[in-house]
UniProtKB/TrEMBL annotation:
It comes from the Bacteria. PANTHER family: IRON-SULFUR CLUSTER ASSEMBLY 2 HOMOLOG, MITOCHONDRIAL (PTHR43011). Residues 10-106 form the Core domain. Pfam families: Fe-S_biosyn. GO terms for biological process: iron-sulfur cluster assembly. Coiled coil: none annotated. It comes from Paracoccus aestuariivivens. This is Iron-sulfur cluster assembly accessory protein. One of its GO terms (molecular function) is 4 iron, 4 sulfur cluster binding. Signal peptide: none annotated. PROSITE patterns: HESB. InterPro entries: ATAP (IPR016092), ATAP_core_dom (IPR000361), FeS_cluster_insertion_CS (IPR017870), HesB-like_dom_sf (IPR035903).
Length: 111
């Protein structure tokens, strides 16, 4: 796959606000958003609290940090990292314009 990073991922204020809530009881830890092989559609998102690496893309807002590793960046070009709180559950979600299809749960996608 040969994708150029023309538009970095964007993090919504709602996602930064939720991350601030998560970090309110201790030291602020960045939210890592990564793409890994696997899942029912070929790729899956790995979203977790993690320390940044030297080569990560750092996205900051509202005093919070989201990091994306360089391997995942081409898969997340132009993506929006958001937070959803609905009756079926609360979670960070990725609106990814690069995904040609995704599974019903939204954590797996194909390009």
């Amino acid at each position: 796959m040969n994708v150029q990073l023309t538009l970095p991922p964007k993090v919504t204020e709602r996602a930064f606000a939720r991350l601030a809530e998560i970090n309110s009881d201790g030291p602020a830890r960045p939210l890592r958003v990564a793409v890994a092989g696997g899942g029912c559609s070929g790729f899956q998102y790995d979203i977790r609290l993690d320390e940044p690496a030297d080569d990560d893309l750092i996205l900051q807002g509202s005093g919070q940090t989201v990091v994306v590793d360089p391997v995942s960046l081409p898969f997340l070009t132009g993506a929006v990292i958001d937070f959803s709180d609905e009756l079926i559950g609360a979670r960070f979600i990725i609106e990814n314009p690069n995904a040609s299809s995704s599974c019903g749960c939204g954590t797996s996608f194909s390009i």
